[in-house]
Amino acid sequence: MIGVSNGRFVDMPAFSKLSELPVGTQALVREFPKQGSAFLRLREMGLMPGTSVTLVRTAPLGDPIEVKVRGYNLTLRKSEAEHILVEPTVTTKP
């Protein structure tokens, strides 16, 4: 997959963990765990396969992360975001 970063085309992996996205990257949720109370809560808040998300920012030590999903900002623990596979689509400047 090819994306755009700072006006340049760059190769991007097909799927990556939500926790590993660079700030400003937009992606589509592709795979999502189907068990556990934390994941039920995330699905209820709209984070489901096919949903577009944008990584807004990370805390200074990298945990938690903030993503924009369905028009609102959602803060996730990095340990939760590691279980969510996404397909990066667009990278913008932070």
Give a verbal description of the structure.
With 94 residues, the protein is mainly beta. Helices cover 13% and strands 44% of the residues. It has helices at residues 37-44, 78-81; strands at residues 2-5, 8-11, 16-17, 25-31, 52-58, 65-69, 72-76, 85-91. It has a six-stranded antiparallel sheet with strand order 3-8-4-5-6-7. A two-stranded antiparallel ribbon has the order 1-2.
SSE arrangement:
Elements: E1 2-5, E2 8-11, E3 16-17, E4 25-31, H1 37-44, E5 52-58, E6 65-69, E7 72-76, H2 78-81, E8 85-91
Antiparallel strand pairs: 1-2, 3-8, 4-5, 4-8, 5-6, 6-7
Task: Compose a concise summary of this entry.
Helix content is 13%, strand content 44%. It is mainly beta and 94 residues long. The protein has a single domain (2-91), classed as SH3 type barrels, CATH 2.30.30.
